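Hi support team,

I submitted a single chain yesterday and got back a structure, but I'm not sure I'm reading the token output correctly. Could someone confirm the output below corresponds to the sequence I sent? I've pasted both exactly as they appear in my results page.

Thanks,
R.
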Amino acid sequence: MEKQYYEQGDTIILNQTQDFHIQHILECGQCFRFEKIEENVYQLIAHRKKLRIGQEKNQITFYPMSMEEFTTLWITYFDLERDYGVIKQQLSQQDPILQEAISYKPGIRILRQDPWECLISFIISQNKRISHIQQVIHYLCEAFGDKINAEDGSSYYTFPTPQQLAKATETDIRGCKAGFRAPYIVDACHKVIHGEVDLQNLYQLPTSQAKQELLKIKGVGPKIADCVLLFAYGRYEVFPTDVWIQRMMKIFYLGEEATHQQIQQYAKEKFGNLGGFAQQYLFYYGREKQITKKQ
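Hi R., thanks for writing in. Yes, this is the structure output for that exact sequence:
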């Protein structure tokens, strides 16, 4: 990216607000370990770090933050080297529905998350509201993660590693309000620790093959696998299809009889390598507007 950021004490200031809106990024359903402090000010925990992000009209602030940490971790995490203006222009030219969805929440960026945390988070997400997902993740982190004492005197917990989480029984995980997802989390721990699913190796595999590896884990279906591929591995051609995307695609594109396979094929042909970006704009628009029929 063209350098639009600088260090000021223990804060990094980013002058790039046209395609970056912290609310749109964190509340679009792609991540869960964040807390809204006040309007356009959030606390985020990711990659074992906690930071406070504030956004005003002309700039975004990251605190506490060094230039080294920002350039080695957070530029990648927030996908800051990608020109989202070009992506939005390409997608907006496709059809008026996508153009409206993009205009509604133009500041979305797809995060590059830790694969293990992303996998477990989306296993937990099945049939749960975001507030409930956040609660379960909080309980898991508090029970099995590392406690970190921050410089400001506060403390937080890291997301538990597979080895840490493997020490928990299914009953322990149910105690964190995971419900029917508990055995899926146990299975994920077992398969990752024993190398049956090598999350690091997935970076090297073609997308279709990487998806098949993720599907080996109990409770992981096509939608969860696609979410992990998109939000952790940067496979931007995937098109995660949940109930909101199904509604959007049926209402505006394919009709009520469209199958999951037809939606996937249509998205592949229409959006190509930008499928994941299109999905995020359409999903956030449909969910926030509560679209259940043609407007």
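A quick pointer for reading it: Residues 243-289 form a domain with the Endonuclease Iii, domain 2 fold (CATH 1.10.1670.10). Let us know if anything else looks off.

Best,
Support desk
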